[in-house]
Amino acid sequence: MTIGRVDIDSIEILDGLNEDDVVVTSAQFLIDSESSKSSDFKRMTHDEVPNSVWMQGDVNSVMAGHRMVNISHGPAEAWDWPEMVMDFTVAEKVDIDSLKSGQSLHFEVSKTEDGGYEITGIHIMSEPEVSSATVSGLINAIDIDTRILNISRGPIEKWDRPAATMDFIVADNIEMVDFNVGDNVTFTFEVRDDLVITDISLESDEQHGKENKAAVDHSNH
Questions:
Q1: DSSP label at residue 51
Q2: pLDDT digits (tens, 9 = 90+) for 128-171
Q3: Does domain 52-126 have CATH number 2.60.40.10?
Q4: Which residues sit opposite 4 in a β-bridge?
Q5: How many CB atoms lie within 10 A of CB 30?
Q6: How far apart are CA 67 and CA 90, in angstroms?
Q7: pLDDT tens per residue, range 159-205
Q8: Which fold would CATH assign to domain 131-202?
Q9: Which of 71, 131, 137, 176 is the right S-S partner for 191, CB 3.0 to 4.6 Å?
Q10: CA 148 to chain centre
Q11: What does the radius of gyration of the chain's CA atoms come to, in whole angstroms?
């Protein structure tokens, strides 16, 4: 189409139109319509990607001091995530002390404002099978910074294990300042990623004497 003179009210058409042709004099509706459809599409796309998802997984390790947990989790289709092994921050509202290595979880992961991900909800589906034993021993060394006790423990009959000197991690709920090098103790430990003492108490001199006598009597047979 060829145009000629143009003023504020009219445009001269020199070529390209015939008498009785139908023309559009305003495209505002089309523009508004397309804009509306575009906004609806953007809103729909945004709504399809949630800020949080629930997944299933197994706890590999818990880093309570850093409020982090390592989990092998299944796929999250809403976020297009495959099966992965990941470290997650644990939100303050979640009881991190309830998390243990070997647990199976149904857990909620939410996006954070800084672009990270954190666990904001948990349902514990099953507890790990934990091997534990109670035994007596002598404390040889204490490292409060790493929460490690070196103990010469007695034999563990149910596991057919002889007496041995070993390092044990002390659970966070136990006050290590209550114990000293040279103390005779009775303690319960669990076999996790490490050997973790979950309960420990000082032996009285009478208890220690009886145990020593039993050990001597047993050795004479």
A1: S
A2: 777 899 999 999 999 999 999 999 999 999 899 999 999 999 99
A3: no
A4: none
A5: 10
A6: 5
A7: 999 999 999 999 999 999 999 999 999 999 998 878 999 999 999 86
A8: OB fold (Dihydrolipoamide Acetyltransferase, E2P) (2.40.50)
A9: 131
A10: 24
A11: 35
